[in-house]
Amino acid sequence: MTTVGTFRTLALSPPGRRVGSLLRHPRAARVLSWVGFVAAWQLVVPFLPTDLVPTPSEVAVFMWNELRMETVAPHTVYESFSLSFQRLGVGLFLAFAIGVPLGLLMGLRRWADWFLHDFVVVGLAMPSLVWALVAGMWFGFGDLAPVVTVTLAAVTFVVINVAEGVRNVPKELLDMSGAYGVSRYATIRHVIFPSLMPFFFAALRYGLANAWKGLVLAEVWASTEGAGWVIKFWYDAHRSQGIVGYALFFIIVAIFIERIVFGRLSRWVFRWRPSDDRRTPEPEATDRDEAVPAAVPAATPGRQ
Amino acid sequence: MATIKVTDLRKEFVTDTSTVVAIENVSFEVGGHEFVSVVGPSGCGKSTLLNILSGIESATRGTVDITEGDRQAKLGYVFQSARLLPWRSVIDNLLFVQSTRGPQVRARCERYLDMVQLAHTARQYPGQLSGGMQQRVGIARAFSIEPDLLLMDEPFSHLDAITARSLRRELHAMWQETRKTVLFVTHDVSEAVELSTRIIMLARGGRLVADLPVELPFPRDPASDAVALARADLLRRFESLDLLAT
Amino acid sequence: MQTNLRPRRPAAPPSPGGDERAARRRAERRARWLWRIAGYVFFVGLWQFTSSFLVADFIVPPPAVILTEMWDIIASGQVWVHFGATLRTIAIGFAIAFVLGSATGLLMGRSRWWEAFLSDWVMATLTTPGLIFALVTAMIFGLGPTGPIVAVVVTSFSYVTVNVVEGVKAVPRDLTDMARSFGRGPAQILRHVYLPFLAPYFFTATRYGFSIAWKIATLAEVIVGTAGIGFMMRQQFQQFSMRGFLAWVLLFFAFALFLERVVLQRRMRHVLRWRPEVAR
Ligand SMILES: Nc1ncnc2c1ncn2[C@@H]1O[C@H](COP(=O)(O)OP(=O)(O)OP(=O)(O)O)[C@@H](O)[C@H]1O
Ligand SMILES: [Mg+2]
């Protein structure tokens, strides 16, 4: 019935109305906004009083050259990003190595929670800029300052999430395992560990987002290579298309990690969930205290 | 064929704002091949009693002894809610509570899944099953360890009448065949009369108010006079409980 | 043989009455505070120990030195100059972002078309690292306060927008329909239905936006500031003065926490007093 109706109106309506109704569709709005934005940007820039704003075509050319490894910077985009990723990996590993035991302790023992809580909250709220500068002053130029920055910026997120996860292990399932006399090892492996998974994910997500911001800053001020340092290089060289181009690389990498890596991984880990909420393992762990949400970027990692 | 000896049991829950007495001065003994129903109004401490028997809760006062010949009694517990591990498949949920591994253990689990008519869901996750199906997995899980003592907390209350009736028959047959001890919580009076050899009645505040043998031969025809009379008697007692409570 | 199902606590004391419960709560509160103080003592002690025995003073200055440095900064009046400068940046930038963001958020919340039109750009500004905005505005506007202000506007704008959109979508349809069916005009509906529902979202927006604004403002000042907390941090960093740096960081922290905790949350509690869980 409805299809027939729609078909008729479409067929009978004059071409003008058809275009109008197409334009009213949200998808048209999206296309329109992209086209409009890029066009406006391209057209407006020449009239600006400054020549420091790059046009989209300049940015596109820059990015294309970077991808073909034609660059005036001392390192290619691939070298820079892979170095940054190595630092990120090592730092995150350390953050988990330190944060998981502390989080377990805080979740299991009340005194540990009381003992550490305020410091964890301060750590959560600390701008990663501060970590970057402190690490820079302590360790000078090199690999150590960025790695330490990553660890410091991520570790409190790990601690708070693991602690919350431990407190949230479903008691009725633990009771069930106890009533059936299931061994301690099997209980940890099949009850406690899986129920901690969403909190590990949250820790990884927020920790990664914060660590990445800190890493870039540490590379700006306390390193001579890496993606952050290259941005500083373009800044000093007054090449604004370099800054914008690198920003776009950042966004692409962030989207890749968020959608592909986290998306795939969490779909696999949470494959037992009824299909619609498999992709969003959001435990909202960090909302336990008043203090924490302010420190956690709303729903959106990836921002200094 | 386990023996349960409960003496002078008392359980209170202390919270920040109040103290609730869930079990008050309960003593009873269950020996051997008995099917004991525990009935009573909602909130009278039935689940708490089973939790204490299974060791999940500890009593405030009194003792509980569960003996089984010369070895540890194996308990199977059907909880009031299914309590399945959502991240493990149905068959893995059954395997999780087994004390041994091996192909014959697996075959046993599959057999009990089949008994609750869920063999086809073995590879699915609990989240993909309906509430009643999950409850049946919980029943299969309790049966699958072939326990000496079976604790069941309103196992059939989420199920439709037909499924419940067939599972009741299944339970009864298994009880007769394996001569296990069953402690069966319900607030369905007909169900209690149909299945039990003995009925323990709790009142609000966890007091034991009646301990009645049901001496009717099996199989019990719900339409027969004897069963109807027993049911009427129990119902009368049940209603007078409410009068006492108010 | 018997199973070990004997109660773990064979004979409990008689049930605690009200007095005992209160006593237990007091004891717990005392324990909590003791542990908390122990935590502070431990960390300050660790700090002191590190600076006196493990590393040189200029790498980890002892706590007392930092405290005197902080006191000097306060006494000399520097703190007001620089906090004032940063606060001005934040206030101006955030006010603009709030107005723009609220308007955009209302637009996007009410119209699917506008949501589709704008959401990609809002998301893009949310995911771009703040450093990028700080650097680009620095290049365009050069030294001085304009660059930081623009950076604050751009970054906190998207936070406000996202939260307002969320709020508008959470306004229950049946209440607006009810108001309309009683013949209330758009202004009245905005005032009596939308605003009370949006209030918590405005506050979330303010809190997130504000903490972001702090960070981006200091970051921008580190790069191009001529005054402000970030500017002072950079100075101390370049002079390699851990002492001055930590003193400024701690002052920054105290101030940010005070503003957010005391000032913002007070307001929030007042505006949200109709909600049962807040009134408690
Ligand atoms: N963990 C607990 N903390 C505090 N009170 C509890 C706890 N568990 C049970 N109670 C209280 O003990 C009493 C008995 O609870 P129980 O769950 O045993 O009732 P029940 O007989 O199983 O009821 P139903 O038929 O509704 O399942 C109730 O008043 C309940 O509020
Ligand atoms: Mg119950």
TrEMBL record, chain A:
<keyword id="KW-0472">Membrane</keyword>
<feature type="transmembrane region" description="Helical">
    <location>
        <begin position="147"/>
        <end position="166"/>
    </location>
</feature>
<keyword id="KW-1133">Transmembrane helix</keyword>
<feature type="transmembrane region" description="Helical">
    <location>
        <begin position="119"/>
        <end position="141"/>
    </location>
</feature>
<feature type="compositionally biased region" description="Basic and acidic residues">
    <location>
        <begin position="276"/>
        <end position="291"/>
    </location>
</feature>
<protein>
    <submittedName>
        <fullName>ABC transporter permease</fullName>
    </submittedName>
</protein>
<feature type="transmembrane region" description="Helical">
    <location>
        <begin position="187"/>
        <end position="208"/>
    </location>
</feature>
<keyword id="KW-1003">Cell membrane</keyword>
<feature type="domain" description="ABC transmembrane type-1">
    <location>
        <begin position="81"/>
        <end position="261"/>
    </location>
</feature>
<feature type="region of interest" description="Disordered">
    <location>
        <begin position="276"/>
        <end position="304"/>
    </location>
</feature>
<keyword id="KW-0813">Transport</keyword>
<dbReference type="InterPro" id="IPR000515">
    <property type="entry name" value="MetI-like"/>
</dbReference>
<dbReference type="InterPro" id="IPR035906">
    <property type="entry name" value="MetI-like_sf"/>
</dbReference>
<comment type="similarity">
    <text>Belongs to the binding-protein-dependent transport system permease family.</text>
</comment>
<dbReference type="Pfam" id="PF00528">
    <property type="entry name" value="BPD_transp_1"/>
</dbReference>
Automatic annotation (TrEMBL), chain B:
<protein>
    <submittedName>
        <fullName>ABC transporter ATP-binding protein</fullName>
    </submittedName>
</protein>
<dbReference type="GO" id="GO:0005524">
    <property type="term" value="F:ATP binding"/>
</dbReference>
<keyword id="KW-0067">ATP-binding</keyword>
<dbReference type="InterPro" id="IPR017871">
    <property type="entry name" value="ABC_transporter-like_CS"/>
</dbReference>
<dbReference type="InterPro" id="IPR003593">
    <property type="entry name" value="AAA+_ATPase"/>
</dbReference>
<dbReference type="InterPro" id="IPR050166">
    <property type="entry name" value="ABC_transporter_ATP-bind"/>
</dbReference>
<keyword id="KW-0547">Nucleotide-binding</keyword>
<feature type="domain" description="ABC transporter">
    <location>
        <begin position="4"/>
        <end position="229"/>
    </location>
</feature>
<dbReference type="Pfam" id="PF00005">
    <property type="entry name" value="ABC_tran"/>
</dbReference>
<keyword id="KW-0813">Transport</keyword>
<dbReference type="InterPro" id="IPR003439">
    <property type="entry name" value="ABC_transporter-like_ATP-bd"/>
</dbReference>
<dbReference type="InterPro" id="IPR027417">
    <property type="entry name" value="P-loop_NTPase"/>
</dbReference>
From TrEMBL, chain C:
<protein>
    <submittedName>
        <fullName>ABC transporter permease</fullName>
    </submittedName>
</protein>
<feature type="transmembrane region" description="Helical">
    <location>
        <begin position="149"/>
        <end position="168"/>
    </location>
</feature>
<feature type="domain" description="ABC transmembrane type-1">
    <location>
        <begin position="83"/>
        <end position="263"/>
    </location>
</feature>
<feature type="region of interest" description="Disordered">
    <location>
        <begin position="1"/>
        <end position="23"/>
    </location>
</feature>
<dbReference type="InterPro" id="IPR035906">
    <property type="entry name" value="MetI-like_sf"/>
</dbReference>
<keyword id="KW-0813">Transport</keyword>
<dbReference type="Pfam" id="PF00528">
    <property type="entry name" value="BPD_transp_1"/>
</dbReference>
<feature type="transmembrane region" description="Helical">
    <location>
        <begin position="212"/>
        <end position="233"/>
    </location>
</feature>
<feature type="transmembrane region" description="Helical">
    <location>
        <begin position="33"/>
        <end position="60"/>
    </location>
</feature>
<feature type="transmembrane region" description="Helical">
    <location>
        <begin position="245"/>
        <end position="264"/>
    </location>
</feature>
<comment type="similarity">
    <text>Belongs to the binding-protein-dependent transport system permease family.</text>
</comment>
<keyword id="KW-0812">Transmembrane</keyword>
<keyword id="KW-1133">Transmembrane helix</keyword>
<keyword id="KW-0472">Membrane</keyword>
<keyword id="KW-1003">Cell membrane</keyword>
